[in-house]
Amino acid sequence: MVFSSNVFLFFFLPIVLIVYFAVSRNRTASNIVLTLFSLLFYAWGETKFVLVMLVSIFFNYLFALGIEKYGERKKLRKGLLIGSLVMNVGLLGVFKYLSFFITNLNAAFSLNLPDPKLMLPIGISFFTFQAISYVADVYRGRGEAQKGFLGVCLYISFFPQLIAGPIVRYETVAGEIKGRRETADDFTEGVRRFLVGLSKKAILANSLALIVDNIFSLPAGEMSVFLSWYAAFAYLIQVYYDFSGYSDMAIGLGRMFGFHFLENFNYPFISRSVTEFWRRWHISLASWFRDYVFFPLGGSRVKSKIRVLFNMFVVWTLTGFWHGAEWTYVLWGVSFFVLVALEKMTGLSKWMEKHKIGHAYAMIVITVVTVLIRSSSVSYAFEFYKIMFFVCDAPLWNTNSALFLKEFGLFFFASVVCSLPLGRLFEKRFKIPDGAMQLIRGAALLVVSFIAITYVVSGSYNPFIYFNF
Amino acid sequence: MRKKINIVLSVLFIAFIFAIFAGTMVKYGKNYAYGFFKSYKEEITPDASLYEEIRARINKLESNAGQRLIFRNDMREMNAYFQSLIGKDMLNIGSNYTVQLKYGGYYDLFTGAYDTEKTDELVNFAKKLKEEKGIPTVFVYCHCGLYEEEELHEIYRDFDNNNECADVLLKAFEDGGVICIDSREAYQKASLSIDQAVMRTDIHWTHRMALETAAETVRKMNSALGFSFDEDKLKYGNFNVETHEKLLYGEIAQRLGEAFMEEDDISIMTPKYDTHIVYEAENEGTVRREGTFEEAIVERRKIENDSEGAYEGKKNTQAYYVYGDYLAKTHTVNEDAAPVKILVFKDSYGTPVASFLSLTMRDVYAVDLRSSDMSMNEWVETVQPDAVLFAYSQQMLRNFDYVIAD
Question: Closest residue of B to A402, CA-based?
Answer without folding.
Answer: B155
